[in-house]
Amino acid sequence: MNTAQFPGPLRDVERKILARVVELAVDFDAAAADYDERAVIAVEHLDALHDADVDRAVLPEQVGGLGLSYLAFGQLVRILAKADPSTATIWVMHAGAGVALAEFTRDSLGSFFADEFLAGKRFANALSEPASGNRFLNPQQEAVPVDGGWSITGAKRFVSASEIADYLLVNARVDDVPTFFGVIPDATVSVIPIWDTLGLRATRSQLLSFDNTVLRAEYRGRAPGPGDFAVIPAGLPAISLGIADAALDALIAHARSRVIMGRPLSHQQWVQFDVADVEIRLAAAHALYDRALWEADNGIPAFFPNLARAKYLANKVAVDVAQLGVRIGGASGYLKQSPIQRHLRDAEAGQLMAYSTEVLAGVVGKQILGVAEDE
Fold first, then answer.
1. What are the E-state strand segments in 226-278?
2. Is the predicted pLDDT of residue 322 greater than 50, yes or no?
3. Which end of the chain is more exposed for a tag (fewer CB within 10 A), N or C?
4. What backbone phi and psi angles, to 5 degrees, belong to 124?
């Protein structure tokens, strides 16, 4: 593998990690449709990523990892998402929860969660509540004091790969303040079996029920800080961009191979015009995302709102590319065995991940117009 293929100021260790992920992605891509059809978590893919030191790479240096740059992280997730977006989504959520707990509890627990993350334990985010909508960092559930900590009763939704998680990152209100905990799933945590989604089926992002689940005081973490590695905000745009890249490749391949009236579809003017439009907008979405990653690596505060803009544009463009793929694919693109229809289902799921495109539009619009967030 030629590691020079990755642009940007990357360290040698980052290039090696990315080259290994490119190799793994070949097999991930070949198996993605089957896992999607069966709605089964690709545990083998997650194991392969851990064995390739991808978990160690994303863990920041100050908590014992290799400390991927945002630029390298963004490239890694795009590679994964183009091959298998369900695995990419699970891994981003796993990394987000594991890195967060390692950082949030470093002063109180030392290297405990970092060591567990490096040992291959699986982490999942259990932050989103049915009553809090997209505002997953602002929980509505109140924690009740009990011996050894606090307890919660309620539900957390869209917990990707929760069925195989060793630890959950859970939030609740303690003395009316959003507070974060590591939780070991036990008999008080149960899966509500309603998962039968249209897209990203192999994430198995379940609804979890908590019944007087203890939030142990020693597993309590501090609040997120500006120096923490923003795994999930930086990862979500990349998932949609990877899906869009795969959808574009699929529609190009179909347009070149499908012959109508003696000529490939690629020779029809309407196809050329529409492909030009989505490809240019997809390139713009990649550029906006790369700008936000560069800002993050260089400590420019604008990176966070620009990640929100990048997610909005990536979500929208991914759907547009996938919808064009269905139009160009025609009836054959609408068949279940076609990758085109799967790309469309996966692209639509990206728009629903917090923050959804509607919420992002409101947030960004207020920023542009100078309207306060609470107005």
1. 259-260, 263-264
2. yes
3. C
4. -145, 150
The string of pLDDT tens digits covering residues 95-130 is 999 999 999 999 999 999 999 999 999 999 999 988
pLDDT of residue 375: 75
How far from the centroid of its chain's Cα atoms is residue 264's Cα?
36
173 three-state secondary structure: strand
- Could you tell me the pTM of the whole model? 0.95
DSSP class per residue in 276-311: HHHHHHHHHHHHHHHHHHHHHHTT-TTHHHHHHHHH
pLDDT at res. 1: 37
**The pLDDT of residue 132:** 67
Among the listed residues 22, 21, 40, the one whose alpha carbon sits nearest the alpha carbon of residue 31: 40
Q: Which of 75, 76, 58 is nearest to 67 (CA)?
A: 58
- What does the alpha-carbon distance between residue 248 and residue 258 come to, in Å, rounded to a whole number? 15
The answer to whether residues 64 and 229 touch, using CB atoms and an 8 Å cutoff, is no
Q: Retrieve residue 246's tokens.
A: 């795969």
Dist. CA 39–CA 161, nearest whole Å: 11
Output the pLDDT for position 176: 94
Gap between the terminal Cα atoms of the chain: 53
Mean predicted confidence (pLDDT) in 83-102: 98
Strands 123-126 and 144-146: unpaired
- For the cut 60, the answer to whether the pLDDT of residue 2 exceeds it is no
User: Which phi and psi (to 5°) does residue 277 adopt?
Assistant: -60, -50
Cβ neighbours around 1 below 10 Å, total: 12
Both tokens of 123, joined, read 């982490």
Residue tagged 């109180």 (tokens) = 108
Angle at alpha carbon of residue 103, lines to 132 and 360, rounded to 5°: 35
Measured at the CA of 136, the angle between CA 135 and CA 137, to 5 degrees, comes to 95
